[in-house]
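Figure 3 (text version): structure tokens given as input.
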């Protein structure tokens, strides 16, 4: 009988159970044994109740029924994020999960829009050329049209859900499919003296758990990769200075909006995430410019319904480990790094780690060093590109006279972000890479929303006569506005499609 690789997932929560679910579903069951260790003594952070459209791909790939999952987790639909006050206190814009405009004459839409503006044509805002944004404005939702020629096909969607309930949902899903769960707190890590590989873990009960490959989902402790393996830390707090978050659930209020809201505040920003059974709220702030008591008062004043408990404090540092895969250990989720909750990237990074791992998973008998080298290359790309996108939100602001915002507006930037900024300012070129977050349309929404405007455009756009361009722009805006007419409200969609069995719900805030 062929030798089986013993995989041990260290820690539960969203990261641990996403990994256990994915590995149990995607790997051949006759080649791997899967065990997850978690302790009821250790609470989970549960970062992020808001997600990105990639989570639907994860659920679909596992074969999870959408309506069943949404009912079990109190989930709602997310079409984007509304940013309030990020450039200056009166501004607002939406980062949508949908396309801006259409490519004409083989040229991306933003070049035509920039050309029209520079020619004196009243082209309006980029926000007027996205169907997903129009749905958000109308608090409406329907499933995207399968006809790719329809304006109603030009968007995707994600979810807001209760992170604790989602971890519990996946726990049941994974254990029914062969994942073994061990309850216990890890007290010791035993490594091979020659190779440095982890060989076994000792639990508080005295039980020893042996393994061949360990997935570290131990949260900020990073028990294996940051702890036992002593991988160096890449500190990014110089670019992302927020290091605290307060989180609190409040009673649900109407209407049930299909978007997250992120509102800039004096020392950071507050979030609002609508679930079926409550609203998730939080305040991400920098302890350098705001004390915890002041942050508490800011958060409580931002609630639009009664708080359900006292806020919970989370301390963190922005950055990542230099390598996520060290020896026979792989860090995932908070154990691999953290870039604060802005843009809801934490769950995506767990998912990206899973899909990269199953492509590179070793067989029993040893680990080819090229496998961790490739995983770590991809890991760095994912984190570094997310970092640049998050920093853009902060550095491009006009909130003068506020210490945090003055600092991030004038700080030195990563060279990779400066390159993207200069390309867009000089010629409306937006990042179009296929690997990692975020897409061209995501960058366009934040560029314009934060006041970063192009001073030129691609020469190919000049092939379209100006009169025709003006007509096309007008027609597109009309199609988008008319397309939303008759679409049901987001609340009505939830009631028909996936109303939670227990409207009161359970679980913790973000």
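Below: residues designed for each position.
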């Amino acid at each position: 009988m062929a030798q089986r690789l013993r995989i041990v997932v260290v820690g539960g929560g969203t990261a641990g159970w996403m990994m256990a679910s994915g590995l149990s579903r995607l790997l051949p069951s006759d080649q791997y044994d899967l065990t997850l260790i978690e302790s009821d003594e250790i609470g989970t952070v549960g970062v992020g109740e808001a997600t990105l459209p990639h989570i639907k791909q994860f659920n679909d790939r596992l074969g999870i029924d959408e309506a069943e999952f949404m009912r079990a987790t109190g989930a709602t639909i997310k079409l984007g994020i509304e940013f309030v006050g990020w450039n200056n206190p009166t501004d607002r814009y939406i980062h949508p999960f949908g396309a801006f405009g259409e490519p004409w004459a083989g040229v991306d839409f933003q070049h035509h829009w920039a050309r029209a503006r520079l020619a004196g044509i009243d082209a309006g805002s980029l926000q007027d050329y996205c169907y997903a944004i129009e749905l958000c404005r109308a608090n409406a939702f329907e499933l995207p049209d399968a006809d790719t020629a329809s304006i109603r096909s030009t968007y995707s969607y994600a979810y807001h859900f209760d992170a604790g309930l989602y971890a519990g949902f996946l726990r049941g899903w994974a254990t029914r499919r062969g994942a073994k769960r061990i309850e216990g707190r890890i007290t010791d890590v035993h490594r091979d003296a020659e190779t440095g590989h982890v060989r076994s873990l000792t639990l508080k009960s005295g039980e020893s758990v042996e393994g061949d490959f360990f997935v570290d989902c131990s949260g900020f402790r990073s028990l294996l990769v940051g702890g036992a393996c002593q991988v160096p830390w890449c500190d990014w707090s110089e670019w992302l200075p927020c290091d605290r978050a307060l989180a609190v659930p409040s009673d649900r209020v109407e209407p049930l909006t299909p978007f997250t809201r992120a509102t800039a505040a004096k020392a950071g920003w507050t979030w609002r995430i609508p679930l079926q059974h409550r609203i998730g709220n939080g305040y991400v702030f920098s302890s350098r410019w705001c004390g915890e008591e002041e942050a508490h008062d800011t958060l409580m004043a931002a609630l639009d319904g009664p708080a359900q408990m006292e806020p919970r404090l989370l301390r963190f540092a922005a950055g990542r480990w230099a390598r996520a895969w060290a020896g026979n250990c792989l860090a995932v989720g908070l154990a691999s790094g953290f870039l604060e909750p802005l843009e809801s990237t934490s769950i995506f990074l767990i998912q990206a780690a899973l899909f990269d791992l199953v492509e590179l998973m070793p067989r029993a008998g040893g680990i080819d060093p090229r496998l961790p080298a490739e995983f770590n290359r991809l890991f760095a790309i994912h984190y570094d590109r997310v970092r640049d996108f998050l920093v853009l939100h902060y550095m491009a602001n006009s909130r003068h006279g506020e210490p945090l915002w003055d600092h991030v507006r004038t700080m030195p930037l990563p060279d990779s972000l400066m390159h993207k900024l200069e390309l867009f300012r000089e010629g409306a070129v937006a990042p179009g890479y296929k690997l990692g977050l975020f897409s061209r349309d995501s960058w366009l929404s934040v560029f314009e929303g934060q006041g970063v405007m192009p001073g030129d455009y691609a020469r190919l756009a000049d092939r379209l006569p100006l009169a025709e361009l003006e007509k096309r722009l007008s027609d597109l805006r009309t199609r988008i506005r008319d397309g939303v007419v008759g679409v049901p409200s987001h609340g009505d969609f939830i009631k028909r499609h996936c109303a939670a069995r227990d409207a009161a719900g359970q679980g913790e805030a973000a």
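The chain has three domains: 5-49+162-233+318-379, 77-160+414-490, 245-315.
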